[in-house]
Write a structure and sequence with these properties.
It is a single chain. The chain has eleven helices and seven strands. It is an alpha/beta fold. It has a five-stranded parallel sheet. It has a two-stranded antiparallel sheet with strand order 5-6. A hairpin with a 2-residue loop joins strand 5 and strand 6.
């Protein structure tokens, strides 16, 4: 939901979208460690934090992301406590992926075919970002809303909260300027969160404790209209362009300039389990 090309054009910053669909904060922390191991430090990092990411995830730590690095200590360390089987079977072709999810094996074969033929959506990516193909609002939300007329409350996972704290501390210890943010969510959706304000206060306290800004856009007009969303918590392309310009303007107002920045985002899909 952040288009790096728009941010680059407005701010003159080199910008990369490091987000993955559905990854949780523990995975993002591992990705930051991996980035810092191999690459120059960025000047700024944008990390999305929203109350629903504090709930215990049913998925979101993508073991297979670290498979290419298993011959090195850094790759093994990121998988050791998560999936030792992948580490132990790293020399057996495709089996390491099957330990994560057997569906990935046929997907890997399809991916190989696309790579050989020069196809695949990765070729469409610009600075890590692929434009969303979704334009119309997915009315699955209306179903969820009808099943939860009085709203719902989310239980906080101490593990997720701690991972946010570790991410913030790591970025600060490396001299990286961290900006925590929440992209616009549909107001109809946030109104269903009966304990949203309490969870936001936990995130606020975490950021204040570390002297890190937390940018929220609850009251922005984008949040009022379904026209900017393809589901209740994901912007469509029109919404993404508006938000990217909004974010870039905020960066300019705050004097965020020079060098490299990139964004982490755990783009979790709506599920009935969460709601």
């Amino acid at each position: 939901m952040m288009d790096p090309s728009i941010v680059e054009k407005k701010t003159n910053l080199s910008c990369y979208d490091f987000g993955l669909n559905g990854n949780n904060i523990e995975h993002q922390l591992a990705m930051l460690k991996l980035w810092l191991h191999y690459s120059p430090k960025p000047k700024y990092v944008f990390l999305e934090a929203t109350p629903e990411y504090l709930a215990t995830p049913k998925r979101g730590y993508y073991d297979f992301s670290f498979v290419p690095f298993l011959d090195e200590v850094i790759g093994q360390s990121l998988l050791k406590d998560k999936n030792q089987k992948i580490v132990d079977t790293r020399y057996i072709p495709l089996l390491k992926y099957a330990h994560y999810n057997s569906i990935l094996v046929p997907e890997a074969m399809v991916g190989l075919g696309l790579w050989l033929s020069g196809g695949g959506r990765e070729w469409q990516a610009q600075n890590g970002y692929i434009r969303t193909p979704y334009t119309k609002f997915d009315h699955t939300f209306d179903e969820i809303k009808s099943h939860n007329p009085k709203g719902y409350a989310l239980k906080v996972s101490g593990k997720q909260l701690q991972a946010y704290r570790e991410f913030i501390n790591l970025a600060k210890s490396e001299g990286i300027e961290l900006i925590v943010y929440e992209a616009p969510l549909l107001k109809e959706y946030t109104d269903l969160h009966t304990n949203r304000s309490q969870l936001l206060s936990k995130l606020d306290a975490l950021c204040q404790e570390a002297n890190v800004p937390y940018w929220k856009f609850d009251d922005h007009p984008i949040a009022q209209s379904r026209a900017y969303f393809f589901n209740a918590n994901h912007l469509n392309q029109a919404g993404t362009e508006l938000f990217s310009n909004l974010l870039a303007n905020r960066m300019l107002e705050c004097g965020l300039t020079e060098k490299t920045s990139f964004a982490f985002r755990n783009n979790q899909k709506e599920t009935t389990e969460i709601h």
